[in-house]
Amino acid sequence: MKFNIDIILYKEQFRLKLGLIPLLLSKASIIVLILCILLFDMVKVPVFYGMLMMLYYKFLFNKTRDGYQMDNVLYQALSDFNKSLRNHIKQNRFSNQ
Hints:
The chain is mainly α. The chain contains five helices and no strands. Helix 3 packs antiparallel against helix 4 (about 45-60).
């Protein structure tokens, strides 16, 4: 039996929003955190950051499990770092032999 990729990708489970970790690693989350730190004292930062992130998640956050969930800024930076580190280790391993 052949499966149509469009049917598989657009099932309800792939329309669900991602959870807390991708939300906190998103570019908007980092910007909101920096703005909260700059605008408010450290006692009010968690309150305003939490409220703004809840509103952002409810109305603007649209990352789903459609295959592009790793497009966050920090995920990309970490994967690029990991790739360069592996290449560096591989080059050193072969140059020492």
